[in-house]
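Long-time lurker. I teach an intro course on protein structure, and each term I like to show students one example going from raw sequence to a predicted 3D structure in token notation. This year I'd like something fresh instead of my usual example. Would anyone be willing to generate the tokens for the chain below so I can use it in lecture? Attribution to the forum is fine with me.
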Amino acid sequence: MAGRVVAICRGADKGKRKKAVLSGFFRVGMGLVGDAHAGTDKEVSILLKERVDDLSARTGLSFPAGAFAENLLVEGLEWSDCARGNFLRVGEAVMEITRIGKDPALPHSYNYCGFSLLPRFGIFAKVVQSGSVKTGDPAEWWHRKCPREEEKK
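-- Reply from a regular --
Happy to contribute to a lecture. Here you go:
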């Protein structure tokens, strides 16, 4: 199932809300260029918009893109497909999922209006193919195969 990019978000400081931008460049070994988490073990953080919408419906609050410190807000992807080792093509970039959520034993201090989604629903990835991503670009899963290998066939 294909989804789409709702927002690309970046921030200069860790532990703070990120701001939505119209486009970004995702670089192998780095993540989103210009983001505070670029070059760390959590290069790219992704949230499914449906998770944000669920929280909004339960609380009656509105959560802007980047509120939960995510780099990519995407919609239309199945949560059941979010698995470590799967590949996601977003715009021109390709990312490999490295982790779902955060280790609950580690402290997580960032929240927005008292709510945090990344510790439980965050999808963390590393960039395996550099490329530009813009709002509205398609987002599509590849399961257990790097798209570059698939294209060689």
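Some talking points for your students: The radius of gyration is 14 Å. The longest strand covers residues 2-10.
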